[in-house]
Amino acid sequence: MSTPSPVPLSSIPLSVLDLAPVAAGSTSSQALADSLELARVTDELGYLRYWVAEHHGMPGIASSSPAVLIGAVAAATTRLRVGSGGVMLPNHAPLVVAEQFGMLEALHPGRIDLGIGRAPGTDGRTAAALRRSVDGLSADEFPQQLVQLRSFFRGPVQGLTAVPAQGNEPDVWLLGSSGYSAQVAGHLGLPFAFAHHFSGENTLPALALYREAFRPSEVLEQPYAMVCASVLVADDDETARRLALPGGLSFLRLRSGTPGPVPTVEEAESYPYSAMERAFVEDRLAAQVIGGPATVRRGLEELLNATQADELMVTTLVHDPADRLRSYRLLSGLSAGVSA
Prior knowledge:
Helix content is 44%, strand content 14%. It is an alpha/beta fold. It starts with 13 loop residues before the first strand and ends in a 5-residue tail after the last helix.
């Protein structure tokens, strides 16, 4: 078996996953304004796509309605592909998603991505409130929901016409953090985005399943895999490590059932971690690519070499939006081969 060729960072398209983080002392309104500014900057820097996530009931994340935020981002930019990372399909009737994304595609032709996840991504009570029923919340129903959603873009379904979805189909992606969606994406011949940023142990097995299961389609002749990683670039390793601490504490609080706004660096440094909590945060940070430019370049190229990904999507969680902007600027320079 031949060894894959090294993958330089400069050879791979870069994209953005934005959670619209709400910083401690700030507001959701400001978080969304910060997202629009990040979108404008990454548009100018040459990033390929800008995806927004779907989260509910989380004080530290303002992105609860991807379709609404996508419309604002697309209107504020000129070149970026804008999409969902993703729409959690069990939370929504396929007809509603088809209408929303058909409208977005009609408004911004050729620039909209519909990234779809199969899990509710929230607690059962919230998911049931979103659907107004527990029907459709089982992951076992996902394939049928997906087929119905895609069909709405192409014609009537059971006598229903989705307007303006028909004739305005965005690019459809499947998202995953395990092997199930990888296999579905492969069988359907769709592009696949893997959530390496929170399921790194499953990345290589899922990508292997995707490539093994892939069947050519009208969408793709060959597999196309994108990996999403948590990345933070700063002027040096020590600064980057310090700026990453609030993200680690945010994730700890989420896992402890007490989610909140993204804390300040000072709050994260002074937090009274137990030994178990400190180990949890250390493991979380170790799974990210954090450091000065040389460290990040090395870490990302190791990831690309291991995954043979066709595209890299980056998410960055810090307290200060200015540090997030600088990280994406520095990363763009690395991709272009420009030293910081």
